[in-house]
Amino acid sequence: xxxxxxxxxxxxxxxxxxxxxxxxxxxxxxxxxxxxxxxxxxxxxxxxxxxxxxxxxxxxxxxxxxxxxxxxxxxxxxxxxxxxxxxxxxxxxxxxxxxxxxxxxxxxxxxxxxxxxxxxxxxxxxxxxxxxxxxxxxxxxxxxxxxxxxxxxxxxxxxxxxxxxxxxxxxxxxxxxxxxxxxxxxxxxxxxxxxxxxxxxx
Length: 202
Description:
This protein is mainly alpha-helical.
């Protein structure tokens, strides 16, 4: 499929106001998360609330359920970042060992293959394996972000890049631009958290 700038601009122009709002909230969420701001979860909650309603109304049930999960994680992340109900201490950035990251990647890949197989076999889903990979690792990376695991940003770089490929194949031109931007923001988030992590250790 050829890259069509005019189609991208036309798609953005045709986006309803609520969808544009959700996109803006999504970008704000990533930027604020990179800065470890509690406001990130406010934008995450309401952005995903909008997407949940839009996807449910459009009969995209899997996407609606995934965004509903994001809503729950926004509340969970807010509580964790505040230090829990009984403490005002800020949650610190942590880093997983290489072996733990590899274990998570292997388990996530196995689950992604199973989900992809089930989707490809029992549903009319297109690009089922790539779609399953994006969904499963998005769930994992969101949990990691809520717990301030440094490597979540590396996961998101790969996930967002895979989403760009998926949207390219699926013909969602505007979303290609959005996830390409998310990939850059994830790199920024990793650099920012890495700096804060190193400063806390010194």
